Amino acid sequence: MEREDAEAIYEQGREAVVSVLLALSAQNERLEAEVEKLTARVARQDERIATLERQLGRSSRNSSQPPSADRLSAPPRSKGPSGRKQGAQPGHEGKGRPLLPIWAVDEIVEHWPVVCGCGHVFCEEDRVAVGEPARRQVEELPVMAVCVTEHQGQRVVCPGCGERQAASLPDAVAASAFGPRLQAAVVTLSVRNRISRRDVVELCEQLFASRISTGTVDSMIARTADALTEPCEDLLDRVRSARAVNMDETGWRLRGGQRALWGAFTDRHAIVQITSSRHDDHAKDLLGTSSAIVTSDRWWAYNHLPVKRRQVCWSHLQRDFAFHAEGRGIEKQMGEAGLGVCDELFWAWEIFQHTGDRRELRRRVRLLQRELKAVLREHAGTKARYRQGRRFARALMKLWPALWTFANQPGVQPTNNHAERALRGAVIYRKLSLGSQSEHLIVGGPITICRSSDDRSAGHIYSATSRFTPKAAASRNRWARPAWGSATSCSGPGRSSSTPATAANCAAGCGCSSVN
Known about the structure:
- Among the domains are: about 165-230 and about 450-475 and about 505-515, no CATH class; about 230-310 and about 415-440, no CATH class; about 315-405, no CATH class.
- The protein has 15 helices and 7 strands.
- It is of the alpha/beta class.
- The protein has helices spanning about 5-10, 15-55, 170-175, 180-190, 195-210, 215-225, 230-240, 280-285, 315-325, 330-355, 360-380, 390-400, 415-435, 455-465, 505-510, and strands at about 155, 165, 245-255, 255-265, 270-275, 295, 310.
- A hairpin with a 2-residue loop joins strand 3 and strand 4.
- It starts with a helix and ends in an 8-residue tail after the last helix.
- Helix 9 (about 315-325) runs antiparallel to helix 10.
């Protein structure tokens, strides 16, 4: 409103001025209400933007996100330069390759000096050993090739009825055209070492002079899956009977569909299962009636376990604290305090691993408990300034006994790194092959399921396949057709010698077993 307009209204009298003032007052109230709404909206949007920015800032450093999912702009995981040179540091205890005892050596080759420094040429009479010889051992692979054994079934004529009878193929031979050692090597290369089917075929041709195909590799894996069924059941019982178990789960794809891969691991045994989801029902099925202490992350599927039987992974907690430490204000204080507790805890655990003094470990843990509990209680409060870290603080307070189980229970570690490392091979397998088309590839086949602390995967598979005879071996009890393509004829009564014999017409005719 200009001055002239205001003077014109004033000249119109008192009522005109009052009307204009009331209108302006109502308009001002409406504008103030609109400003309040917009201010609240901007505050909500600012909070939402801050939340989205924090989500974009998530990486493998401050969450459970794998390093492969980190963006290019994510900060590097590596620590800064330490200022030390690469390799062993001064004072480091050297390590060398120990020599095998003489009884473990296959061949000894003696070398004698030829010429002395003074010019004397040594002869045979001078070769008298003085003291212990200098020793150097060289390991070499022998020339490898598969040993081909041909099984021949001789045919005889029955003197009673005149029929020809052929010997039956043994079940162990009928099961496969490849021996258990070769099958164990192929499965180990394909699954344990994650070599593609085509590369396995090429390696077998080059290293073993064996003729196999990609389909044969799949058949060996499926057959090994059946052979490992009973050992896997025994492994499951051993895992359930252990005092401490590490558990973890990850995503999987089966025939293109979403699945979950659950694993339970001890210091000597491992079992992995494909399930439909990451629901707690599958964790209950895997553990069964086990009373073991379970080390895991804070995934809700483990909440059915009593807190006294749990150990929460401190590596996950460290990443959670790192996420809150990147926040603002009071939330940042909580995150930094938690990171300090994590550093002190890992240092106390490292000292315990070197000294084995559990009393000192408990003393250090009690100090950390008092420090962390004070921080969590403060940030679990109802004040508005604690809203960013309130949920996390309250969750840790509910799991409080499960944070410190490792300090009192032998065999329990403060982290779940053992399970995560054990599943890493399966995760790489999933990324390379986009999952599996058959449950045999994981449930029965891979060596990650059937192994012990010595990690001799091929030996375990050989032991299982050498004792295993498939139920369908009898149906495959047939001899190879001669290379020249001649057909065997049935010689029973009522059959023409020119009619090719098959399992069906011979069984329906004379009962002759002279079938190729």
